[in-house]
Structure formats: structure tokens, C-alpha cells
Write a structure and sequence with these properties.
mainly alpha; 171 residues; 7 helices
């Protein structure tokens, strides 16, 4: 047996973590999340890239100051949205590579991560500007529309806390 065969399989960074976590996990729920996370991460990254191109084009002739801050803040918000999508995949991949993982941990992380995805959707509904809100017969959506737009931050922040707690409690 060679030394290379004794070492755990490596996933070589973020792009390799997705297939590694998918292969290593026995939880179907987590495997579902890996696919969802990959699609959402690519879609959100693409939206933020197009958004920054539009923002740069609109503010290209303006000198620094507030516009420079708004560009940096736009990228910061993009990282804040994408990082919790990637974290469960990276945590599970790291755990499998270093010490092995249980199906319960993978399942718990998948469930908490899918909860984060749902919280993003709820947060987006809350933050829809009143001019863009469509009339609805749903009492739930009407209640979410009635909340102040800043309350749209609460569901994702709460879900990130749940994700952290799931990681800490299940390890």
C-alpha cells in the first residue's frame, strides 16, 4: 500500500467540494441540497456579475466617494448571500475528508441549508417594494408584504443562526 492510498481523497478547493460532498454523503437530502446550492450559487453569482457591470456602467464617469462605496457594498452583499449557500457543502466535505461523517450530520446540514434557501425567498417577498407588489389572495403573502422592507433581513439571518447551531450540535 502506498502513502498516497493512505491519505484521504482531496477535493482541491471550492469547485471540487461539490462533487466530493455529493459522492461522500449518504444522505439523499444533502445530495439534493448540493444540486440546489450549485444552481443557486451559479445563478446568484451571475446576477451579481451582471448587476456590478450595470452599476459600473452607470457610475463610470463619476469620481469616487459614495459610488465607490456602493460598488463595494454591492459585492459585499453578494458574498453575504452566497457564503451561507456554500458553507454546508464545504463543512460536510471537510468533515468527510478529515474524520468521516454521519448520515445524521449530513441530513441535518442539508435540512438547515434548505431552510436557508427558503428564508431567502421569504426575505425577498418581504423586501418587495410596494410599487412592485401584486395583489394576492394569500393571507401569508399579504402579511409578508405588510412588514417593513428592512424586516426582510430577519429570515435569512435567523436561518444562518440555525445553520450554525445545526453544525455545532450535530458534530
Amino acid at each position: 500500500m502506498t502513502a498516497a492510498a493512505d491519505e484521504p481523497e482531496s477535493y482541491n478547493g471550492l469547485p471540487g467540494a461539490f462533487p466530493y460532498a455529493f459522492r461522500a454523503s449518504d444522505s439523499l437530502l444533502f445530495k439534493l441540497y448540493v444540486g440546489v446550492a450549485l444552481l443557486l450559487t451559479l445563478g446568484i453569482a451571475l446576477m451579481f456579475v451582471f448587476g456590478i457591470v450595470v452599476l459600473l456602467g452607470a457610475s463610470a464617469s463619476v469620481r469616487g466617494g459614495t459610488f465607490t462605496f456602493s460598488r463595494a457594498f454591492f459585492l459585499f452583499v453578494g458574498v453575504l448571500v452566497v457564503a451561507p449557500l456554500l458553507a454546508p457543502v464545504l463543512l460536510v466535505a471537510r468533515r468527510h475528508r478529515r474524520q468521516g461523517s454521519s448520515t445524521a450530520y449530513d441530513r441535518g446540514m442539508g435540512l438547515a441549508a434548505l431552510g436557508f434557501v427558503a428564508s431567502l425567498y421569504v426575505g425577498l417577498i418581504i423586501s418587495v417594494p410596494p410599487a412592485l407588489q401584486e395583489p394576492t389572495g394569500s393571507a401569508v403573502v399579504a402579511t409578508l408584504y405588510a412588514l417593513p422592507q428592512l424586516a426582510g433581513l430577519a429570515p435569512p439571518l435567523l436561518a444562518v443562526g440555525v445553520l450554525y447551531l445545526a453544525h455545532r450540535l450535530l458534530r
